[in-house]
Amino acid sequence: xxxxxxxxxxxxxxxxxxxxxxxxxxxxxxxxxxxxxxxxxxxxxxxxxxxxxxxxxxxxxxxxxxxxxxxxxxxxxxxxxxxxxxxxxxxxxxxxxxxxxxxxxxxxxxxxxxxxxxxxxxxxxxxxxxxxxxxxxxxxxxxxxxxxxxxxxxxxxxxxxxxxxxxxxxxxxxxxxxxxxxxxxxxxxxxxxxxxxxxxxxxxxxxxxxxxxxxxxxxxxxxxxxxxxxxxxxxxxxxxxxxxxxxxxxxxxxxxxxxxxxxxxxxxxxxxxxxxxxxxxxxxxxxxxxxxxxxxxxxxxxxxxxxxxxxxxxxxxxxxxxxxxxxxxxxxxxxxxxxxxxxxxxxxxxxxxxxxxxxxxxxxxxxxxxxxxxxxxxxxxxx
Length: 383
Fold this sequence. Notes:
The chain has one domain: Rossmann fold (3-Layer(aba) Sandwich). It is 37% helix and 23% strand. The protein has helices at residues 5-16, 29-32, 111-124, 140-153, 174-183, 185-197, 211-224, 246-256, 272-280, 293-297, 319-322, 324-335, 344-362; strands spanning 40-52, 60-77, 101-108, 128-133, 159-164, 202-208, 234-240, 263-267, 301-305, 366-372, 375-381. α8 links the parallel β7 and β8. The longest helix is centred in the C-terminal third of the chain and has 19 residues, at 344-362. 48% of the residues are buried.
């Protein structure tokens, strides 16, 4: 049954009403007391345009800052974690035996401290960096745990960097979030340049929802500055469920030009969150729900239609991180930068081959539709 926009809005409001005081404390009582013993740990480096939170346990809040702040978080990972499992409970306190839990969060006094730490970690990881940009209606803790989940499930062993912009974390603050996203473009560009200056040999960029707007704007600014691929350091760009007006996206891509490595655009026709975004934007189609994949592919992207895949969230908006098949595909590329190389058609063929094998491995029975310039593949996976 197709929900109308009003039903989607009421559904979103109901979900938002579940959070109570302290629900977005990234440091729990157990973590502050040192009671969480990490079996495995993911370190997330953080560059943010958020102001410090009023509640210290939240660390950063929804208010905007005119300059970047820097931090890190160490996240405990349960030893028997299932691929695509929820990072946090839907309500109540997290259980470190089954959920991701922050064991410590630290602040860097300035950019120099952050750069020193990142430089050392990049040396350890062979220069591989993953930058993640979260979406609309996200609290600080949401975005930290999302990147930790993504890095863990994709088996990424490089340096994980979160770019956290000042989302209000409230469903009705779409306009505030959109303005916060626009205000953060230069800071994301600077964060990527900072990684390039400090030893990153390959920077993969993964952005979700409204975060894709910031990501593509930062890439557009790099192109205008004459450095569209960060001196050859820009790796894969993954735009998951992009909350960007379709005509704006086309304009951005025309200014960027067809990238040397085609961007991956993940779309889904059953994305209820983007349906709401479209309503707020005056029925303007969003890239993440756009039906004409062939049209999008002409701008130098590979479109992966996930409509037939199931998601872990009730809005079908986070399939890129919650569906085991998509996570494994992403992880395959992050683990092996040459996994999907060549022309757009070669890349789509390679994805289809890997998807078939992974679909059997994760028990997924579905169909992916992969569209590249001049090529459309329907891939039956699993079963």
